[in-house]
Fold these 3 entries.
Entry 1:
Amino acid sequence: MADKNAIFEHVATTLSELFELERADITLQSHLGEDLDIDSIDAIDLVVELKKYVGKKISPEDFKSVRTVEDIVNAVSDLMAKNSR
């Protein structure tokens, strides 16, 4: 299982590539809507990419309360922990 730093690096790189964001602008505290201008349609694209990383289906409930990059990292970490059980 990847640690949270590795997950953050993957998430930040994915956000940068998918949405043409500057990698340096993406921090754990970055708010998806306010700071990175990611809307609900963009979030679907992100979940599709993260599904490949996690290796299993991601339900909308898994990401319902996600607001920041750190929330994404924590959600992915939790999903990966469930996979390893």
Entry 2:
Amino acid sequence: MTLVENHNRQTFVLSNLIQVLVIHLVAIAIAPFYFTWGALLFAVVTLFLFGYSMGIFHHMYLTHRSFKCARWVEQLGSLFGTLTWRGPFAPPIQYVAMHKIHHAYSDTELDPHTPTKGVFFALMSWFWQMPYGFTRSELYSKYVPEMANDSWYVFLDRNTNLLQLAWGVLCFLGGWAFGDIENGVRFLLYGVFVRALFTLYLINAVDLINHTIGYRSYETKDNSTNSFIMAAVHLGGAISWHNNHHAHQHYFTVKARWWEFDVHHRFLQVLSKFGWVSDIVILDEVRRGR
């Protein structure tokens, strides 16, 4: 049996739905009463830190192997990516297996989060409306055996919620240390729940926008598009120029038009100056004159 078998057998995952509901409830109904600009800034900074770590390490490193890096950089990046607390897409082993399925069957019935099944499905409800195979953790190892035998990634997958709890405790203690108990609660709310709410919509929007709206530079078998909207939020990269990415999945960045910038690539270039990152795989079609 594999992940894609029994794909028409939808399984309701209550824990994922509860997580999404709790994030919305706390971020919308409670957090505003503790608002400060400093707390909001903290939510935004952690959003960028964790979200970009998921994009760079879970996505481009662990899934597509588009660069090499030091082991401690890999571990730290994957830890931050796991702390996005983004439902089934936070644990790295699950992420990589599901994303490989997405690329193999993009915008078909076997795609775990295609907008062809509806806007709300692509944006959110695929978290708890999952094909039967995606609820069986033992099946993920067939798609990523090298990660399933790595104790670090097994630890992250098995302890995603506990790690988020530990992060929440750090937020509370940090806020308390620079203020009082109320300030600790404030930074807990904004560092965990408000940040997680931003993450859900800003990253999940990729599944919707980048497969429905935008332009295409390559004729791929799916509906992937390049989006200026996502580029404004995500600062370029495979998430923004998604059609380019689907056409050339192994490359960290694919530049098909002169305006397709990639801040993520610049960030890796900085890390490479310290010897922490190497062998970044890029394709610049503009310079090649294509």
Entry 3:
Amino acid sequence: MENKVNLKQRLTGVLILLVIGIAFFPLVFNAAGYEERKLESRVPVAPTVVQAVQTQTPAPVVIESVPVAPVPPVTEAPVVSAPVSEITDALDALRPSLNPVQDPPVLDADQVPAAWALQLASFRQEANARELRTRLINSGYRVYIRHGEDVVRVFVGPEMQRSRLEELKVALQQEYGLEGMIVRFTTQ
């Protein structure tokens, strides 16, 4: 008999919970929150295209002629006569002195051509390195700088032949008083 009473109480409890659930279900799940989240569109309405009806013919365009300033006659530049030997000597001085027979390009262990650079100076302040780089570039040298941990280094080059850098090293020491050292060029 106790089982029947227990079963009856359980069924009554389930029925009461079911009635309470049915009563509160529409209150909780009425989709009112969904309606509140609807946002209005902020995209403006596309403008309508109105074609204007042309009733009159357009006025003719008048182009005025503007007098052109006269161009002065071209005069020939004076020819400086210099002996041919002086001109060829000047051109030879500008030509790089490369001798692939005496100083052939070297391949490293990975069969990549070895390039060299001349490290001229190291500075703690980047402004000093930039100033030297600007002076050297204005003199016609190929110059770049690299940032180290505490210093900024100034390099000339790179060159494929070490002998060319040895000549540059002597020239830069005479011109700027900088004692450089030849190092292997790297891209890092």
